[in-house]
Specification:
alpha/beta; seven-stranded parallel β-sheet; Rossmann fold
Length: about 325
Amino acid sequence: MRVLFASLASVGHTYPLIPLAIAARGAGHEVHFAAGEHVHVPLAANGLRPFRPADSFYEIYAEDIEADLARLKPDLVVHEWGVPGVAVAAHRAGIPGAWHGFGRMFPDGIGLESPEKVVSGLPHIDICPPSLQEKGFLAEQRIELRPVPFSTSAEPSERKGQATFVYLTLGTVFGTPELLRTVIKGLESLFAPTAGAVLVAAGPVPLEQIGEVPSNVKVRAWWPQADVLPLMDVVVHHGGSGTTLNALSAGIPQLVLPQGADHFANAEAVCAAGAGLRLLAGELSADAVADQVRALLRDSSHRDAARVVADEIARMPSPDEVARRLPDLVEQR
């Protein structure tokens, strides 16, 4: 069977699809991946045959992908929530399709179209654990899939010593030098240099704009998040779906600093589950960050709640299990 995956050309939208695409290839299916060139390197490294539809850079419109659907003649198209144009084109061509989520069903007003308003009646491959998913969405035609953090690193990581470790990321879009400096100031006040370490993923913020940091604060443009998260005691982040689910999968309590998009809904779900705390923009200061992280470290209930969700995620069907079900989606059509 030939399967075409499609996503927006960003880490947050492409990486959630890669585990299932790899599993589909491992199950013997011919896999192709439509996305902008920004994400082609990890896709090609995993044998997923990436290509850029037409002149698309980030988004993919229906007219961008139509020629490739005619050329490849896929038996199934798996399109993530951010590329409704691909769903439309597949529907027009009479090709079975399935939506693939990147987290909780996002609320209205964040700049994405609701999948059910674009092409309704299609199955949804859902990587959000049911306890955190939007309750109305649970009634839709859903195929549960365990969220598996994707890593481009081949280096094993292990935790050494009893020091406390905190990971800070503000994602690929919303980080600013001012916000990073404020959060780092709060985190660096928590530990003596030998008692803990803070790993900071600066993302799009140039490292020189962050300035001098103590020796126990390690700043890089990016860390292999899937590898470092299981080593952390607390994750401080913006509330992006990928980081939220990755931290939950590892059973790590979170401090969420929502900035936009689906961040506020994710923060609310994490807090409702007891797996973390949040600070809104008007509450955010270095002292507030320090107080909230200190609370997460001292109160074991947040880690216990995160581990409950991690256990729930571990029981969800694996990518290999779901890959074996993909032919059923074609036959049902």
